[in-house]
Write a structure and sequence with these properties.
Layout: E1 8-10, E2 12-15, E3 21-24, H1 32-50, H2 52-62, H3 69-72, H4 77-80, H5 88-109, H6 111-134, H7 147-160, E4 165-168, E5 172-175, H8 176-192, H9 200-218, H10 220-259, H11 266-284
Antiparallel strand pairs: 1-4, 2-3, 4-5
Helix pairs in contact: 1-2, 1-5, 5-6, 5-7, 6-7, 6-9, 7-8, 7-9, 8-9, 10-11
Length: about 280
């Protein structure tokens, strides 16, 4: 369930600045996470495609399969289903789009953030479909494929680089934002009339991935502010603790000066040792 007959490529780009991409037709330079995602997906596909019992095992245990509430609550499935594909064309188109779009976002965000983004987009698609199946809106079937992650990348790219040109079937130029709107519209229409579309479950994964991708991009600003606020609060608490420690150390040293070292209790001695270790650490730094 994926991008079956959706054939497109895009122009890669080199950024002159963060907001002004300059585009050129060229193969992208592969990035570390994209490389390993491609390797893992292809390896899993070949293993399952060549050995039928392995495919049955993978689909039974690692696809999203909301036959019961229990299988829907098996939390590894929204991640593992992303690495399973139903046929050569299914994996081909998904991996082709990952190959062209993935490096762009991984270079922009860094490998760790990109991997988190990729898996979360796929997981959101893997959660939306079983929800709609459990409430009776969609039929129950195996859901496999990286399409939720792929469409999440498409949505993110459309927001970040709306004017980037991609080439449908290699010949028809379309702005990335227009292409994303078309995909979103197809998914919404399919979900509104699931009786008329055979891949409504896959479209649920597509839409879930696109929503997650869009939310990730639009929320970057407030997430950065939240992280800054948290770090600022942690710094203020650390400074307050250091001030309190220094006041207590001053009191203890005054006591030693007036009454001698033997006047200290065990708690005061422990505080002095802690202050000494802290000071030694600072000196080493």
């Amino acid at each position: 369930m994926g991008l079956y007959d959706r054939d497109y490529t895009r122009a890669d780009f080199e950024s002159q600045s963060h907001y002004a991409p300059h585009m050129r037709m060229a193969l992208p330079k592969i990035t570390p996470v994209v490389k390993w995602l491609l390797i893992i997906n292809v390896a899993v596909f070949l293993l399952s495609f060549l050995i039928t019992p392995v495919e049955a095992f993978f689909f039974h245990w690692f696809s999203v399969y909301p036959a019961t509430v229990l299988t829907s609550l098996q939390l590894w499935r929204p991640i593992t289903y992303q690495f399973l594909h139903d046929g050569p064309w299914h994996i081909f188109w998904n991996m082709l789009i990952l190959f062209f779009f993935g490096p762009m976002l991984e270079r922009l965000w860094g490998s760790k953030k990109f991997l988190t983004f990729y898996l979360v987009c796929g997981a959101m698609g893997g959660l939306l479909y079983p929800f709609l199946a459990l409430v009776g809106w969609l039929d129950v079937a195996y859901l496999v494929g990286a399409s939720g992650s792929i469409l999440g990348m498409l949505a993110a790219g459309a927001i970040l680089f709306p004017n980037m040109m991609v080439y449908v079937w290699g010949i028809i130029p379309v702005r990335l934002v227009i292409l994303a709107i078309i995909f979103a519209a197809i998914s919404i229409i399919s979900l509104l009339r699931p009786d008329r579309f055979t891949n409504a479950g896959g479209e649920a994964a597509h839409l879930g991935g696109m929503v997650a991708g869009a939310v990730y991009v639009f929320s970057q600003s407030w997430r950065a502010k939240l992280r800054l606020k948290i770090r600022s609060g942690e710094w203020e608490r650390k400074m307050a603790a250091q001030r309190n420690l220094q006041l207590e150390v001053d009191r203890i040293l005054q006591k030693v000066h007036e009454q001698g070292i033997h006047s200290l209790n065990s708690k005061e001695k422990k505080i002095l040792k802690q202050a000494t270790r802290t000071e030694q650490t600072r000196n080493r730094l």
